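Researcher: Here's a chain I'd like modeled. Treat it as a single chain, no partners, no ligands.
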Amino acid sequence: MSARSRRIRFWGMLLLVLLAMGGASAGGYRFRQIQSAVILPVAPARQGDFLVIIRCRGEVKAGRSVQVYTPMVPNLRIAWMSPPGEKVEKGSAIVKFDSSSAEQQLQQKEAQLRQSQATLDQAVAQSKITAEQDQSDLADAKFTLERAQLEVSKQEIVSRIAGEESKVDLGVAEQKLKVQDATVNLHAASDRSKIGSATRLRDQAAADVDLTKSRIAQMEIKAPIPGYLVFAPNYSQGWMNAKPFKVGDNVFAGMGLAEMPDLDTLQLDGKVEETDRGRIAVGNEVRVRVDSLPELTMPAKIGQISLLAEATNEFPPTRNFRAYAPIAHPDPRLRPGMNGGMDIIINRIPNAISIPAKALFTRAGKPIVYLANDGHYRAVEVQVQARNPDELAITGIAAGSMVALVDVDKKDQKK
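Model: Modeled as a single isolated chain. Structure tokens:
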């Protein structure tokens, strides 16, 4: 092979190698571009009404609850209760106490009442008999007196001795009449006393019967409102072992046994930080969310704000205000005690450009975003109009622009 052929072959091989290296470099560059575009997450800039909110946490509470108290009856023991969490209607039975002892007492009281009534009837009958006998004896005494008076009137036509005897008989008859009058009055007073005593005993027995019947009627507690029962804890076994009351537990008369929250008055009780207290007011619109129902968003308004801040048990300790947002149309699945949060709307910015909060970065002390374009990222300075926990309202970019959610400069430095 000639020298010229060898040179041509050499330069041809060198050209092929250079072309191969250039193609590999272009492919690697293109691959890096595609890879960077896939790796870096982006999000679109949206245009629309931007709601400036204050977000706070809290729990669902009932604005009104009705307490359920035990009746004023001694020795109460729960025999049946409505299962906790089961809905009850107004007027339906929710708690029943053991009434066997009271029913036994009622039988005894009724027997005493019948005995007292029989004693009273006997006293009344005896009084009538005594009164009739006294009236008969009184009539005999009056007749004797009248006959003695008649004999005395004959002393002008009879002997003097007979006349004196008639006077003596008249005095005796007058004394007997007085004695009989006194006897009648004595018997009447005695009968009235016996009847009065028997009447009091009968009335006392009747009152005992009525009281026992009233206690038995109170052995069943009915629901004052429709809703759900929340039983109070039973501390009879100590504070550490306190559990809600159950069937078989003994309770005291007049104690708070349970409460029924009014489900039509549900509201979210939120904790507002001190720094946000001056930015909210009664009447602000609210969006309520509950942790156990993430798909549910309920509109509401601030109805009340606490006047004083409350200290928390957290460390470091903080102080929060309470904001109450009544829910106009609560979902049937809501229950008091559910954790949730609310977004308090304090301002609206129409036709604002919004981006996720993590798409904003700082360069030289100025806010910037990275606009994505076919895998290339360009830093653009923006102005922040408002901030929310998850998103920002800005100016300086167009709606629909794709912004990076990571710092491109730091990403490149890591590479």
